[in-house]
Amino acid sequence: xxxxxxxxxxxxxxxxxxxxxxxxxxxxxxxxxxxxxxxxxxxxxxxxxxxxxxxxxxxxxxxxxxxxxxxxxxxxxxxxxxxxxxxxxxxxxxxxxxxxxxxxxxxxxxxx
Length: 112
Known about the structure:
Elements: E1 2-3, E2 17-18, E3 23-24, E4 29-33, E5 39-44, E6 50-55, E7 60-65, E8 71-76, E9 81-86, E10 91-97
């Protein structure tokens, strides 16, 4: 999938930024990251119009959502951390140091 963030020029011959890690929230928003500029972008799923963006760190990799879609976790390989984003506010709420070059992440549910 190729997406072109609003107000940015396409890189190379492609029409936008390659997205290999999109996530869809229960309220029908598509989230993706750009390794080129370190942002996470959110789009309306119905028309793919950008509704916001937030800086999540250098070289963001995979994203994962909590089951309710309220929070997104982004592995920031260039910062050796995972960034936590409030998906409603489109705002970073935490940076979690995790060691060298995090790439993939996931969400697990545990019974209490």
